[in-house]
Amino acid sequence: MTTKMNGARILVESLKKENVGAIFGYPGGQALPLFDALYHSDLKFYLVRHEQGAAHAADGYARATGKPGVCIATSGPGATNLVTGIATAYMDSIPMVAITGQVKTFMIGNDAFQEADIIGITRPITKHNYLVKDVKDLARTVKEAFHIASTGRPGPVLIDLPSDVQLAETEFHYPEKVSVRGYKPTYCGHPGQIKRAVKMVSESKRPVIYAGGGVILSGAAKELKEFAEKINSPVTMTLLGLGSFPGNHELSLGMLGMHGTGYANHAVQNCDLLIAIGARFDDRVTGKIDEFAPHAKVIHIDIDPSAISKSVAVDVPIVGDVKCVLEEFLKIVHRPHDKEWTEKILEWKQKHPLNYKMDDRLRPQYVIQQICEATKGEAIIATDVGQHQMWTAQWYNFMRPRELLSSGGLGTMGYGFPAGIGAKVGKPGSEVFVISGDGSIQMNIQELATAVVNKIDIKIAILNNSYLGMVRQWQELFYGKRYSHTKLENPDFVKIAEAYGAVGIRISKKEEVRPAIEKAMRTKNTVVMDFIVEPEENVYPMVPAGKRLDDMIGSMA
Amino acid sequence: MRQTISVLVENHPGVLARISGLFSARGFNIDSLAVGETEDPSVSRMTIVAEGDERTLEQIKKQLNKLIDVITVTDLTKTKFIDRELILIKVGIRAQNDRTKIIEIAETMKANVADLGLHTITIEAVGETSHIDDLIELLRQFGIKEIVRTGKIAMETESREKPKTIKEEEE
Fold first, then answer.
1. pLDDT for position A309
2. Residues of A with CB below 8 A from B58's CB?
3. What is the pLDDT of residues A261-300, one digit of tens each?
4. Distance (Å, rounded) from C-alpha A119 to C-alpha A108?
5. B88–A contact, CB cutoff 8 A
6. A306 and B167 in contact by Cβ < 8 A?
7. Helix orientation angle between A364-374 and A513-522, rounded to the nearest 10 degrees
8. For an interface test with A, which of B10, B22, B57, B62 has the most A Cβ atoms less than 10 Å from its Cβ?
9. Burial state string for A136-168 with b = 16 or more CB within 10 A and e = fewer than 16
10. DSSP SS3 for A403
11. d(CA A283, CA A287)
């Protein structure tokens, strides 16, 4: 039996059918019916303090749990405030469903109060988007949106819902199945291509696996480990790939690219076979593209055909889901355990480890190492963007997937804290740390209210160097130390924390670091740790923009 | 390299914006684009002529195929196809015998007079792009006032060889 209900209610019932565990959002005029329906529902709703926070929290929820994140905002400014968060999720292929209120259908295009063409605005930063003009289409649209967001190469989908459609009534049927004729992702790799790739693997002398976020999205960490061990190949990871392979494994090379390890970059430049798995040859990874992995044949496994041969020519492309393809590989792949290459790599790892100056000053890398030790490397770490992000990638030993949340593609400052909130909501049993900078944290610091009010006890470590550190580093190295507008005069972060009802701790000496982290972990509240670190510490190694990957400052020449 | 791509898309508002937005956002060049409903009213066909090196053209096809509203992408350049374009050319009459000369050229080129005025003649022609280009060249001497072209529409000819969709190509 079906009953008539209005669009707002249909949306809420549809979200329940999708088992949505949490919604992050902010109300407003054209979303009033929707919020009225939420009032009566038992869906978990988290009121943020800025819509950007809602989008990032939904993203963080999705990255930590693997389930699509959901955020809601009103029309106009509410919707446009989601844009940065949607673009962030789009660049990193994160499943998300964003719902926006819209002015009444007959007002659309009239420059109505709080009207914005959010469909037009988000067209290039969503996997797909919908303007629902007829309430009869609503349930099917929600079903399609979740399907599209979470399958194939995942991504954000936006549903724009005019307020008169929220109020219009119809019978509610939630469809069992989705059929979108223009959307049929390929999951299983082509058997012929897989055979060709396996032959290449067995003939290679110096293979390197280059694993990206696709491994994590596909849930293929176990298969990757088996594969790497079976063919005895070292594994390097992109920023988003960290955690797809255990950081302490002897075959792990850590991260590659602009701030990758010396041994990872050298391994790539010297390998004869590069196996790219769920990675997209981003310019921060490849350095000078014409001289990237110059001696290597390339196998590329990716679910998105358009990711293949986009920037690097590929010898064997395999379109398919990473997990599915690796399972096929594992059935037939074999490579003789040639020790020469792995021994060489081990030698590089021992001779040229990551390093920083060991003295009694409070250096940011040390803080991250201490967080890693105190949490036994088992916390979920959300970062913002800048030096602290790269130090986190280098010095926190990620062991498992879905434990690093970071804006890789878009590089969004202000991402980390709300993403951490989303992660803690999705994984309440996990310790969640936000590692941020004094610049980044101020971009969404208002979410301290969200965290405190909802008792989301996450720990925020601000690596405070009173600079926009990464930009300052570039100015130091490439702009003659002209620190144009990168020096920050900061507020008192401890007092800010306290004003919001959180706990603030200031740390300015090396010996205070570990006790402060431990105190934060014992505290049942949101804690802000303000680490006053060496102001002009740089991130090394570094491949200057446009240089070859093994042309690094601060590592093995 | 120039390529003619036939794209079947959902026939609903906003789809054209998705396609044109894709081209502008990714820096692809469209030579021409023609859209119209097909035998199935829920589906439109777009004929897109695009220019670029091989990698760019490959990307265009893949990126088009990625759009949810795109049903199939067929690279007609890889098969046998016919293409047509409609053009209207308004030509000025400067001398007494221009009119006769223009009509003569039109007849020879299998084009029609669409409008005859005191100071201008408008010629309409349908044909392959090369044929249309020849006609324009022949009429240029009289002083062309205005040209309107529809852009190319194209259709594969009876299957001597079936063109592959992008998905099949990858396999």
1. 85
2. 309
3. 999 999 999 999 999 999 999 999 999 999 999 999 999 9
4. 12
5. no
6. no
7. 40
8. B62
9. ebbbbbbbbbbbbbbbbbbbbbbbbbbbbbbbb
10. coil
11. 6
The answer to whether residues A339 and A345 touch, using CB atoms and an 8 Å cutoff, is no
If contacts are CB pairs under 8 Å, which of residues 517-546 in chain A contact chain B? none
pLDDT confidence of B167, banded at 50, 70, 90?
low
How far, in Å, CA of A415 to CA of B130, rounded? 54
Helix (H, G, I), strand (E, B) or coil at A341: helix
The pair phi, psi for residue A178, each rounded to 5°, is: -115, 140
Structural contact between residues A361 and A509, judged by C-beta atoms closer than 8 angstroms: no
- Number of neighbouring beta carbons within 10 Å of residue A499: 12
Angle, helix A387-395 to helix A469-478, in steps of 10 degrees: 100
Mutate to test the interface with B, among A121, A123, A143 (most CBs of B within 10 A): A123
Distance of CA B44 to the CA centre of its chain: 15
Token reading at A498: 């306290």
C-alpha distances out from residue A283 to A84, A316, A410, Å:
21, 21, 12
Number of H helices and number of E strands within chain B?
5, 9
Which range, of A51-55, B71-75, B115-119, B157-161, averages the lowest pLDDT? Answer: B157-161
Instruction: Looking at the complex, report in whole angstroms how far the Cα of residue B50 sits from the nearest Cα belonging to chain A.
Output: 17
Q: Nearest Cα to B46, choosing from B78, B66, B20?
A: B20
CA A368 to CA A353: how far, in whole Å?
A: 16
Query: Which positions in chain A touch B68 (Cβ < 8 Å)?
Result: 127-128, 148, 180, 182-183
Q: By C-alpha distance, which of B41, B133, B45, B26 is closest to B89?
A: B133
Residue B171 has a pLDDT of 46
Contact (Cβ atoms closer than 8 angstroms) between residue A119 and residue A141? no
Which chain B residue has its CA at the smallest distance from A192's CA? B171
Segment (H or E) for A277: strand A273-277
Query: Do the chains contact at B17 and A123, CB–CB below 8 Å?
Result: yes
Q: Distance (Å, rounded) from C-alpha B16 to C-alpha B30?
A: 13
- Does the CB of B67 have a partner CB in chain A at under 8 Å? yes
For the full predicted model, state whether its pTM sits above 0.90: yes
Q: Choosing among A153, A179, A181, which should be mutated to test the B contact, i.e. which has the most B CBs within 10 A?
A: A181
Name the residue facing B66 among A131, A190, A306 (closest C-beta).
Answer: A306
Question: Residue B142: helix, strand or coil by DSSP?
Answer: coil
DSSP, residue by residue, A159-191: EEEEHHHHH-EEE----S----TT-----SPPH
Torsion sign over Cα A306, A308, A312, A315: negative
A292-342 residue pLDDT tens: 999 999 999 999 999 998 888 899 999 999 999 999 999 999 988 888 999
Residue B166 has pLDDT above 60, yes or no: no
Q: CB–CB of B65 and A181 under 8 A? A: no
Cβ-based neighbour number of residue A452 at 10 Å: 17
ipTM confidence score: 0.89
A305 close contact with B: CB closer than 8 A: yes
- Judged by CB atoms closer than 8 Å, whether chains meet at A182 and B70 is answered as yes
